[in-house]
Write a structure and sequence with these properties.
By secondary structure, the chain is an alpha+beta fold. It is about 45% helix and about 25% strand. The longest helix has about 35 residues.
């Protein structure tokens, strides 16, 4: 298949994916409101309050306002509900507005709207939990998010707070309902995900078949499969893998950090591992490795191969429209292409260097 039909196929799939994502009703909601007193009609009844010094909470005409002047404290209101013990999706929404909210030192020190799951009595922030994270002055806007409750969840808490962030957060039209995916959306999700997989297969089948080394063929297939699986897995699974890798890294590096601690005056707390997003490293590494495998046969024109790898990077992000808890990011495409670009530059430099050496030998003769 030539590049032009591939581009047409890609453009058509992208259009269908965006249309299904934007135009189809993804969820149907149950009629039951899961929150008690969501309109604050009886002030803050049924809600737990955390209002330290220099903070305040008021309710006026079913609008709740949190106000804080204290950057060292958190002003919050929350409500805890019991999990049903079954697989469940919840849609949490509200209209929010902020006035002069100042961000704190941490990235999460802002006005926040959250749903936090509790597992074995502890808040689990590794699971998807954020609906909105706001700072500055923002006009009224509707915010919503769908959460998949973990089977291990014992309870969950809806939280509205100014997290070490002075300013004012206003809330109205708060709602929490159980959500179920519509049949049409389920069919479109599986159908388009399958077609994206077909597109990726067609995209690289000529390059993989042209490989004369059977081991390179197997490695190329495994790498493309790993990219597809890594793209399609739900956000919860992705976060669990990241957490497990981080824990293993801490265990493996513990003897080294202990040795450094004994040889220096550095405290163990100052020798924590730097925060590294392993998924970004995986993005970069898998695309760099695939580029290396495909360039080794040196038959496909480099520009055409580069374009195919770019289409793969874009396709991998488009699939994330259908993965629970995942968000397509153009920055991830750039990370993928950074891995591709480095390998291409290395091959170009190697080929130019080889040409100079051959030219030198010819000139000598």
């Amino acid at each position: 298949m030539k590049v032009s039909p591939l581009l047409f196929f890609f453009a058509l799939l992208t259009l269908l994916t965006l249309c299904s994502h934007l135009l189809l009703d993804k969820y149907v909601l149950t009629k039951e409101q899961l929150l008690a007193n969501p309109t604050f009609a009886t002030n803050e009844e049924y809600w737990e309050k955390q209002i330290p010094d220099d903070t305040a909470l008021t309710v006026t005409q079913n609008i709740l306002s949190l106000y804080s002047e204290n950057p060292d404290k958190t002003a919050a209101i929350s409500q805890e509900r019991t999990c049903s013990g079954k697989a469940q999706k919840l849609l949490l929404s509200a209209e929010l507005a902020t006035d002069s909210v100042l961000s704190g030192e941490k990235g999460w020190n802002k006005a926040r709207f959250l749903l936090v799951q509790y597992i074995e009595g502890k808040a689990n922030y590794r699971l998807q939990h954020s609906v909105a994270l706001l700072s500055g002055t923002q006009p009224w806007k509707h915010y919503s998010n769908v959460f998949t409750l973990s089977p291990a969840c014992s309870s969950y808490r809806v939280i509205l707070e100014l997290n070490h962030s002075p300013g004012q957060l206003n809330i109205r039209n708060l709602s929490l309902h159980e959500a179920q995916e519509t049949t049409l959306y389920i069919w479109s999700k599986w159908l388009l995900t399958g077609i994206w997989l077909l597109f990726i297969s067609v995209l690289f089948l000529p390059e993989i078949r042209a490989q004369k080394n059977i081991y390179f063929k197997i490695l190329a297939v495994v790498t493309v499969t790993a990219i597809f699986i890594g793209t399609a897995i739900p956000g919860k699974t992705k976060n669990d893998i990241k957490y497990d890798i981080a824990q293993e890294a801490k265990i493996i590096s513990a003897p080294l950090r202990h040795s450094i601690h004994e040889l220096t005056d550095l405290s163990s707390s100052s020798m924590g591992l730097p925060h590294v997003d392993v998924t970004k490293i995986a993005h970069f590494s898998l695309f760099a490795f695939l580029s290396l495998l495909l360039l080794l046969k040196q038959e496909t024109p480099h520009l055409r191969l580069f374009c195919k790898l770019f289409l793969l990077a874009c396709a991998s992000e488009m699939i994330q429209f259908y993965a629970d808890g995942r968000t397509p990011l153009f920055t991830d495409v750039m990370i993928d292409m950074a891995g591709v670009g480095i390998v291409f530059l290395a091959f170009r430099y190697r080929r130019r260097d080889r040409g100079l050496k051959l030219g030198g030998k010819t000139g000598t003769n």
